[in-house]
Specification:
single chain; 235 residues; alpha/beta; Rossmann fold; 2 domains; six-stranded mixed beta sheet; four-stranded antiparallel beta sheet; 10 helices; 25% strand; globular
Length: 235
């Protein structure tokens, strides 16, 4: 049994059609797992289902052996799951430090030591801690979003398109930061359009097509799989 699992998930939004069908995804602590596939494949939907933002018709969500399928998103966060959405993931009118402090809403004790850990992980945030987030570059904003998600010291970090809209150089930088987070023994589940680059840093990956598992394997296996290469990696 993996640390965090979505098993045989089937469901969609409201009364609409099912977007994921018997889809299964899992991740261990200290591991990066990517969910890949064409647009409309159900990648983000699978992740949202695991976070509780989607009512499943069938399937189970399990963290550390505990079934959390019936828990609200807020209660899943209390179980140690942190989520960084693709958009609207920072407060632009607040400073870097204020954004990070907003991430500590579940911490009852003094969180200064956590703040220090975040600044160690993302040195640029310490340098710019008094600056408004709206004045930062796209890559720096994403670091704020990552840092804020880590303030609750999660065991699972879920990232929805973390490199969307940033330049290739910034993308490499963000992936370096994601690897650093992995080394702190966090389980990282990531939906990513930049499939080749994502697989390069991923321990494992899943390729979804029309809401179903089509291929899975280590990052290396998927990169070298001729079917995956021709369909999703541009040859």
């Amino acid at each position: 049994m993996a640390f965090f699992e979505g098993n045989n998930m089937t469901g969609g939004y409201g009364n609409g059609p099912d977007i994921i069908n018997s889809c299964s995804v899992n991740v261990e602590r200290g591991e990066i797992v990517s969910i890949l596939g064409p647009n409309g494949a159900g990648k983000s939907t699978a992740m949202r289902a695991m976070l509780g933002l989607l009512n499943l018709k069938s399937g189970k969500i399990i963290i550390n052996g505990k079934d959390i399928s019936k828990l609200s998103p807020q209660d899943r966060v209390k179980e140690g799951i942190s989520f960084v959405p693709q958009t609207k993931n920072v407060f632009t009118g607040m400073t870097v430090e204020e954004n990070l402090e907003m991430g500590a809403f579940l911490i009852n004790s003094d969180f200064k030591f956590v703040l220090d850990e975040i600044y160690e992980l993302f040195p640029i945030l310490k340098e710019k801690r008094s600056q408004l987030v709206g004045e930062l570059s796209g890559g720096q904003r994403q670091q704020v979003a990552l840092g804020r998600a880590l303030m609750i010291k999660p065991s699972v970090l879920m990232l929805d398109e973390p490199t969307a809209g940033v330049s290739p150089i910034v993308m490499d930088e963000l992936f370096d930061h994601i690897i650093k987070v992995k080394k702190t023994n966090v389980a990282i589940l990531m939906v990513e359009q930049n499939a080749k680059q994502a697989l390069n840093i991923s321990d494992r990956g899943y390729v979804l097509v029309t809401g179903e598992n089509r291929y899975s394997g280590t990052g290396k296996e998927l990169l070298n799989d001729p079917r995956v290469r021709s369909s999703f990696l541009g040859g």
